[in-house]
Design goal:
128 residues; mainly beta; four-stranded mixed β-sheet; three-stranded mixed β-sheet; 1 helix
Length: 128
């Protein structure tokens, strides 16, 4: 999320790359393009008017034409090793990695539904 002034979202940007999940029984490919992805915010930075910014932040402020006021920029990231929940339809396909036995599955939307990916815990559940 980009630019937050007291809880009001001023702009939003999401991007991602395909990734694999492995639950110990097999590997599934997840493509976040068009998926509903819920992540917790991992980083936040307060940006005041006229502040000196590193290049990526300066580009965000310029691209979104944020107001001349202090805003909070927040970022959520799915990191390697994080526990995620994924919902969708599984489609078998050949695994491009010849060192892994058997097919892999790709998670796709079920009918009109989008793939759902979340790192948010449900009822406080945490891995052991």
């Amino acid at each position: 999320m980009v630019g937050d002034d007291g809880g009001r979202r001023l702009a939003y940007e999401a991007r991602g790359q395909s990734f694999e999940i492995d639950d110990g029984t097999g590997v599934a490919l997840i493509d976040p393009e068009g998926a509903q992805v819920e992540v917790d915010y991992d980083h936040a930075v307060e940006v005041a008017p006229g502040a000196r910014l590193v290049q990526p932040l300066a580009e965000l402020v310029r691209r979104f034409k944020l107001p001349d006021a202090t805003v909070v920029l927040r970022e959520g990231v799915l990191e390697v090793g994080e526990v995620v929940a994924v919902h969708g339809r599984l489609v078998r396909e050949a695994d491009p990695d010849p060192t892994r036995p058997g097919p892999r599955v790709r998670v796709v939307g079920a009918g009109r539904e989008r793939v759902f990916v979340s790192e948010r815990s449900v009822d406080g559940w945490r891995p052991a």
